[in-house]
């Protein structure tokens, strides 16, 4: 049997754009009818991992593509107060919907298909339930105002990069090209990119990721890398100077 598919394609990188995050809305009296919702729960929310591109005319953020061709399972680790806090989702949509009253950090573990030969990817998302008002200092608005503002969206763009992929996995990826992101936005920007307290952040609506935002995100990452490199160089020079001072002190001690 041929092992050609198990050979890595050296020097090649291929990526798939994804988003992860949540949507949240206030629970209404209608929502509570006929449901088994704890009385102290104030919001219903959905946390998800999706393709970055949105389907045309969809009211869902992202999700134009089925990611199961390279993702085998997504595990969401919720707050320990939830029953079965670890939720394994083995088929799309890779998401969990719940109700609750508080914000907390959710661990998201992405397991790739066997052909990938890659370790799982772990992400972290802080569940966001509340919008911000635009008057004065940012603050949580009262329920009647929050309802008018619409759903709260908190989404992060990321790229899953596969370096030196196995040939058979590369074949799978190239057979499923991602839906291109639109060139410009037609919807409000996601809340995580909006300035808390700004008018744009309070308008609600359905966010949409674009190529421009992808470039801006890449530019921010590059700028961050340069700042880290500069800071490393600064501390390296400080260390060199301290080592010189230490050597001078040793010489003085030895000559005394």
TrEMBL record:
Classification via InterPro entries: YEAST_sf, YEATS, YEATS_dom
Comment text on domains: The coiled-coil domain is required for assembly into the NuA4 complex.
Function text: Component of the SWR1 complex which mediates the ATP-dependent exchange of histone H2A for an H2A variant leading to transcriptional regulation of selected genes by chromatin remodeling. Component of the NuA4 histone acetyltransferase complex which is involved in transcriptional activation of selected genes principally by acetylation of nucleosomal histones H4 and H2A. The NuA4 complex is also involved in DNA repair. Yaf9 may also be required for viability in conditions in which the structural integrity of the spindle is compromised.
Highest taxon of source: Eukaryota
Compartments in which it is found: Nucleus; Cytoplasm
One Pfam family cited in the UniProt record for this chain: YEATS
Name under which the protein is recorded: Protein AF-9 homolog
Subunit structure: Component of the SWR1 chromatin-remodeling complex and of the NuA4 histone acetyltransferase complex.
Keywords of the record: Activator, Chromatin regulator, Coiled coil, Cytoplasm, DNA damage, DNA repair, Nucleus, Transcription, Transcription regulation
Annotated Gene Ontology cellular component terms: cytoplasm; Swr1 complex
Coiled coil (UniProt feature): 214-252
GO annotation, biological process: chromatin organization; DNA repair; regulation of DNA-templated transcription
PANTHER family cross-referenced by the UniProt entry: YEATS DOMAIN
All residue ranges annotated as the YEATS domain in the record: 8-176
Gene of this entry: YAF9
Coarse class of the protein's main subcellular location: nucleus
Family (UniProt): Belongs to the YAF9 family.
